[in-house]
């Protein structure tokens, strides 16, 4: 005797907080953006680099800086299982891309024959409070130009970003620029900054008080509204820059001006990561609330040495894909949706083997085709198949009826354009008419 199977209520499993599924049709917008990025990178001769999700925790502690939000509280870190010597590695999921790119560049000695222009795309992980535009798994596109010291390269990466905005139709961003100078200049400024903050100690929040001596520059980056006014009047790093740093800044501005890139100087722009010097910049928008930074970057001439490589200058940026797509949506910019060219309607289950052969031929000729699949009772009625064809968004229905199949033909019925007429085409000459089904774009 077979036991009766009693259905048991199974607890529903859900995804991890702050980590999203990217589902169709939305995923088509991601693919379109990624395709545009790849195309643009190759036009600027930036080449793709792919590093692992996991790195030694020490890489990020050294690379990003110990006294930063990311390293202090946002990393997903764990101790791996011990190897046969009883040693366990401390690993972290990457919270950003630059440190790993620099590690890989050093490890493979990529700069042995001169500078390198690189780009990456992929998920990053930070344990932040999830909200609109801020997630625990999010995605970045980043560029890193390593081995180039001049302001022309700062300008190049900024121009690349503005070309990307143009290519995807993003209009509501503005560029903010600043220079952080060199370590010696920052040290002078730092002393005065600490004195200033000490004078206003009553206004400092807990984070700021803790950073007052370890990383006072970062206090300028505060998001606390109660501190904004006091921070706005703090001593400006720009006023401490020497001739060389100023010349670099002027060089960058001259190139941006010649290319009609508009920007504002924001003396309080310091960036959340520790490794920057000279140029820092952000592309910001007012349309995404407090998650208004879409793309951010700058120069990091000391990072390579800090991670153990031979000194080499570098500049780069990273953009948040979620924020870019959100902003495009906010702007009402039309986004590509992915619809098949044709929808195949089939009357007899017994014709499936032959029909599927023809669909394979169409696809290999570049036509995108969705097929109506058979259910347990065979093919659905023509009426319900046509209904599905309509909701699929396809521009044509390919009707493989019993008569058509007997005569080696298919009826092609336009579904969207009333000016087009229905035609019958021979199945042994698919190459002759396949192109007529493809979208003109
Ligand atoms: P924010 O000031 O918004 O926290 P950040 O200074 O931490 O940004 P970067 O580390 O410079 O950001 O990362 C570059 C870009 O990556 C940001 O400008 C943003 O577009 C995106 N980004 C950073 N953190 C997140 C996140 N948690 N969720 C979604 N996008 C993010
Ligand atoms: Mg942040």
TrEMBL record:
Compartmental location: Cytoplasm
Segments forming domain Aminoacyl-transfer RNA synthetases class-II family profile: 30-340
Top-level EC class: ligase
Top-level division of the source organism's lineage: Bacteria
EC assignment: 6.1.1.21
Keyword set includes Cell division: no
GO molecular function, one term: histidine-tRNA ligase activity
Pfam families: HGTP_anticodon, tRNA-synt_His
Reaction(s) catalysed (UniProt annotation): tRNA(His) + L-histidine + ATP = L-histidyl-tRNA(His) + AMP + diphosphate + H(+)
Keyword terms of this UniProt record: Aminoacyl-tRNA synthetase, ATP-binding, Cytoplasm, Ligase, Nucleotide-binding, Protein biosynthesis
Oligomeric and partner information: Homodimer.
Sequence similarity: Belongs to the class-II aminoacyl-tRNA synthetase family.
HAMAP family associated with the record: His_tRNA_synth
Protein name listed in UniProt: Histidine--tRNA ligase
Organism per entry: Rhodoferax saidenbachensis
């Amino acid at each position: 005797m077979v036991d009766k199977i009693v259905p048991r209520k199974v607890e529903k499993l859900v995804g991890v907080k702050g980590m999203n599924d990217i589902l169709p049709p939305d995923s088509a917008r991601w693919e379109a953006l990624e395709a545009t990025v790849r195309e643009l990178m190759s036009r600027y001769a930036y080449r793709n680099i792919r590093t692992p999700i996991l790195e030694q925790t020490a890489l990020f502690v050294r690379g990003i800086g110990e006294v930063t939000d990311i390293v202090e509280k946002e990393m997903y870190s764990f101790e791996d299982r011990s190897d046969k010597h009883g040693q366990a590695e401390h690993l972290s999921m990457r919270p950003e891309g630059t440190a790993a790119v620099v590690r890989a560049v050093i490890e493979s000695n990529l700069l042995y024959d001169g500078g390198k222009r690189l780009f990456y795309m992929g998920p990053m992980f930070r344990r932040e409070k999830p909200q609109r535009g801020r997630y625990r798994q999010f995605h970045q596109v980043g560029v890193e130009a390593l081995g180039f010291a001049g302001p022309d390269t700062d300008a190049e990466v900024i121009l690349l970003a503005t070309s990307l905005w143009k290519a995807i139709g993003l209009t509501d961003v503005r560029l903010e620029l600043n220079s952080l100078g060199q370590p010696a200049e920052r040290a002078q400024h730092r002393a005065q900054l600490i004195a200033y903050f000490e004078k206003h100690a009553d206004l400092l929040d807990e984070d700021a008080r803790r950073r007052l001596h370890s990383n006072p520059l970062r206090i300028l980056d505060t998001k606390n509204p109660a501190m904004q006014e006091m921070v706005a009047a703090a001593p400006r790093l720009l006023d401490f820059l020497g001739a060389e740093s100023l010349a670099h800044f002027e060089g960058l501005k001259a190139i941006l001006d010649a290319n009609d890139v508009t920007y504002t100087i924001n003396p309080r722009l310091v960036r959340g990561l520790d490794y920057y010097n000279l140029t820092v910049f952000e592309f910001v928008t007012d349309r995404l609330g407090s998650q208004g930074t879409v793309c951010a970057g700058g120069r990091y001439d000391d990072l390579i040495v800090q991670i153990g490589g031979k000194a080499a200058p570098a500049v780069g940026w990273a953009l948040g894909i979620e924020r870019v797509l959100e902003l495009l949506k906010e702007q009402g910019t039309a986004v590509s949706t992915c619809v098949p060219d044709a929808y195949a309607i089939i009357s007899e289950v017994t014709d499936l083997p032959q029909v599927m052969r023809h669909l394979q031929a169409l696809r290999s000729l570049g036509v995108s085709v969705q097929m109506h699949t058979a259910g347990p009772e065979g093919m659905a009625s023509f009426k319900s198949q046509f209904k599905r064809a309509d909701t699929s968004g396809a521009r044509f229905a390919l009707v493989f009826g019993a008569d058509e199949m007997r005569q080696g033909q298919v009826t092609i019925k336009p579904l969207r354009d009333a000016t087009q007429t229905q035609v019958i085409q021979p199945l042994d000459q698919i190459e002759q008419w396949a192109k007529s089904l493809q979208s003109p774009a």
